[in-house]
Amino acid sequence: MNTKPKTVFRPKLFDKKVALVTGGGTGIGFAIATELSLAGATVWISGRSEEKLDDAEKRHFKETGLRLLTQPCDIRNATDVDALTSEVLTKSGSIDILINNAGGQFPCSAEELSNKGFMAVVNLNLLGTFSMCREVFNKYMSTHGGSIANITLGMNNGMPLMAHSGAARAGVENMTKTLSQEWIASGVRINCVRPGIIYTESGFDNYKGLGDDVLNKIVRSIPAKRLGTAEEVASAAVFLSSDGARYITGQSLAVCGGQSFTHLAIFEQEDKVGLIPYGALPLKARL
Ligand SMILES: CCCCCCCCCCC/C=C/C(=O)SCCNC(=O)CCNC(=O)[C@H](O)C(C)(C)COP(=O)(O)OP(=O)(O)OC[C@H]1O[C@@H](n2cnc3c(N)ncnc32)[C@H](O)[C@@H]1OP(=O)(O)O
Ligand SMILES: NC(=O)C1=CN([C@@H]2O[C@H](COP(=O)(O)OP(=O)(O)OC[C@H]3O[C@@H](n4cnc5c(N)ncnc54)[C@H](OP(=O)(O)O)[C@@H]3O)[C@@H](O)[C@H]2O)C=CC1
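== Peroxisomal trans-2-enoyl-CoA reductase ==
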């Protein structure tokens, strides 16, 4: 028996539309692919690992009775990006919705971060996102229109251990504004979704080393007092991809449960607990 995931979108919202979700095999990307698929789109997912994509395809079919199409692609590799976009267009005929969700980083203090490490993260989050946008625009959207949603990370006030990623994500947000201006005449809308801290099994594996204490502090500093879910980010991305958002372009939508921990920090002293501006904490007490 299929126990279909819940969705707030209507079943045929994206009838005859083709969507491509990078990093769609896990976490937030998989939740977005699921929402788009339940809303009637033909959905392609990509990522570096063929195994993750196959697992996702099987899980999606088991949960929904619907198919996903898969193609491995490292978005930092121009040949891969060319092959992926050509394959989707050859097999499905259009790319109406592009979700640039693939991304990530490793936590590292600025003093220990090498140029190679900095560029690895910039190439993934900024250059990879740009080349996906450009290829899809040049090959399809420039003549047919469409919508693009870039998944970034809510750290516009900065975040310790994330100098590389913060710079890349800020780059994506600004690039998005420029592309929205250049491409609106072609009927292309492009926006960002800026998640706060979202629980995904795959994503959190990378941060285990920071420890439960850090995680607990983060949760207490979020006004909603909980982490977000992948489905909550998916709702925002799918709304921005829909006709309901037809007058929205060049914007960034935060999905963060209120003011995020990058602005406010938990303050604990002699049984008193409160929130203070993050910058007011002594350096070593920060994340
Ligand atoms: C208990 C939980 C507490 C939770 C607390 C949460 C706090 C913040 C959470 C923020 C929320 C964000 C969530 C997410 O973004 S979820 C996404 C999750 N996925 C990822 O983050 C992806 C994981 N990372 C990667 O896939 C790779 O690291 C990456 C693609 C970014 C780079 O891989 P690549 O293969 O290109 O790089 P290399 O391994 O070849 O390394 C290249 C150089 O990079 C430097 N490097 C690499 N790793 C480190 C490291 N850990 N520390 C320092 N430097 C590093 C290094 O210079 C490499 O060069 P060398 O090989 O010559 O040394
Ligand atoms: N979880 C969170 O708290 C937050 C997450 N985000 C962002 O949301 C997005 C999804 O995160 P989340 O679902 O949590 O984490 P995941 O690790 O599950 O998602 C990252 C996805 O990106 C893919 N990916 C990584 N590198 C590449 C690459 N070079 N080319 C193509 N695909 C790649 C991965 O697949 P594969 O390894 O097979 O390539 C994976 O499917 C990321 O951009 C993340 O930084 C933003 C804010 C908060």
